[in-house]
Design brief:
elongated; 5-stranded antiparallel β-sheet; single chain; 5-stranded mixed β-sheet; mainly beta; binds zinc ion; 2 helices
Length: 435
């Protein structure tokens, strides 16, 4: 009895044990392991063992590294390793033996049986047996370039004809020539062809110094004629005569001749204009006429550095009796002193003028701190080149500081001939003469 109980208990125990061992209560349904996953139960997900890992096949010329099991690839194909085409086989891969359907190559030879170098006059050649196909063959070697010396002028160019230069091959003496461009003309100084008169232009020309060809021809104005003939003396360090022009005013009696001497202050100081004398000389430097200070007007009396001033010279000369063909030299002597006084800053506004009278209207204001004494207003008429070509002037009664007054400047011209082109502008310069 006791034995039975023990047996029964044992069966119960074994059954219970078996029941415990198979905890899930099923037998596993295994999925085989792959390259990247281990053996797994499809029902309970239980795994056993390790993933297999990839089974790599090495890369080839055309295929990348590949897994034989799952087909995954890594990297790139190696590419073919080409051996050049020969006369018997086209380009071929030395690794996989792949043969292109490209063209065959040249014959090849390591030991030439006959060899002639190329020169600058003939091709060379090489003859041998092909090491691939055993055929005899010849290749030509292209002609060499000539080995020239430097270019040498054989015919110099001039301003009327082209020149030539040549070079010679050191090896074959082959001669090559090329043209040298014509030289430009060598411009000489302007030459006066025709002397101007007071009322009509002359003519000036420029010739080539080499071939004497006429290159340029232009009118030669009386103003230019004067400028070319001017000789300046005195006070030259601080002042420069920058222009000389003229106008002629003639009434029923005689033509009166006016010179306008334009000065520029090239010093660092204010300059006070004192006097100017003009001598009119012929080419032999014989005095034709002399103008004394009585006939001069200056404007302004003090000029600042870099500014312009003017001398107006009333020659009073009967120019019609003057023979310009015997030459004309104007000798200008300017007397100028350095001045510590600044130029006066009067205000001139609303300037208007018009032909045929050339009356100049405007307003004057004394913007200084002292009354004016001998106030002088000068109208300078300018042509389109900015040259002073005429002037007129007037005096004003004393003006107290801060006061203003209208003014009118009336030219005493009769019929006037100006140097240069027509008048296009008018500037009024105001200054105290005894300042
Ligand atoms: Zn399972
Ligand atoms: Zn794999
Ligand atoms: Zn290959
Ligand atoms: Zn060959
Ligand atoms: Zn040569
Ligand atoms: Zn020339």
């Amino acid at each position: 009895m006791r034995k039975r109980i023990i047996l029964g208990l044992s069966v119960v125990l074994i059954l219970a044990l078996c029941l415990c061992l198979s905890a899930c209560g099923h037998s596993h349904t295994w999925i085989d392991a792959t390259c990247t996953t281990a053996k797994t139960c499809s029902e309970c997900g239980e795994v056993e063992g390790e993933p297999l890992g990839h089974d790599w096949i090495a890369a080839t010329c055309t295929e990348p590294k590949t897994c034989s099991r799952c087909g995954i690839t890594e990297g790139k194909p190696l590419g073919h390793t080409w051996t050049p085409a020969t006369c018997i086989s086209p380009e071929t891969c030395t690794v996989c033996g792949f043969v292109t359907d490209g063209p065959l190559g040249d014959h090849c030879c390591d030991q030439w049986s006959d060899e002639v170098d190329a020169t600058c006059t003939s091709e060379g050649y090489k003859t041998g047996i092909c090491k691939y196909c055993s055929e005899p063959f010849t290749i030509t070697i292209p002609m060499k370039e000539h080995d020239y010396s430097d270019w040498v002028v054989s015919i110099p160019a001039t301003c009327t004809s082209v020149g030539e230069e040549e070079r010679v091959c050191k090896d074959c003496q082959h001669r090559e020539t090329r043209q040298i461009e014509m030289l430009p003309h060598e411009l000489g100084d302007w030459v006066v062809i025709e002397t101007p008169t007071y009322t009509s232009d002359g003519l000036k020309a420029q010739y080539c110094q080499e071939c004497s060809e006429l290159i340029n021809e232009e009118p030669y104005t009386f103003s230019e004629f004067l400028s070319d003939k001017i000789v300046i003396k005195g006070a030259r360090d601080c002042v420069q005569v920058t222009d000389l022009s003229y106008f002629i005013d003639y009434d029923d009696f005689w033509p009166r001749f006016y010179l306008i001497v334009e000065l520029t202050n090239i010093s660092n100081n204010n300059l006070k204009l004192y006097s100017c004398t003009c001598d009119l000389l012929n080419d032999e430097l014989t005095m034709l006429d002399k103008v004394d200070e009585y006939y001069f007007s200056t404007a302004p009396s003090i000029i600042a550095p870099g500014e312009k001033g003017y001398f107006f010279v009333n020659w009073g000369y009967d120019v019609s009796s003057l023979d310009l063909n015997s030459g004309l030299t104007v000798k200008v002597e300017v007397t100028i002193n350095n001045s510590s006084k600044p130029p006066q800053q009067f205000s001139v506004s609303q300037v208007s003028w018009s032909p045929p009278s050339y009356d100049v209207l405007g307003y004057f204001e004394n913007t200084t701190k002292s009354p004016t004494d001998s106030l002088y207003l000068v109208a300078v008429f300018l042509n389109s080149d900015g040259r002073a070509v005429a002037f007129s002037d007037t005096h004003l009664d004393p003006v107290e500081p801060g006061d203003s007054t209208s003014f009118k400047i009336q030219p005493l011209w009769g019929k006037t001939i100006y140097s240069g082109a027509e008048i296009v502008d008018c500037q009024v310069i105001a200054f105290d003469y005894w300042y």
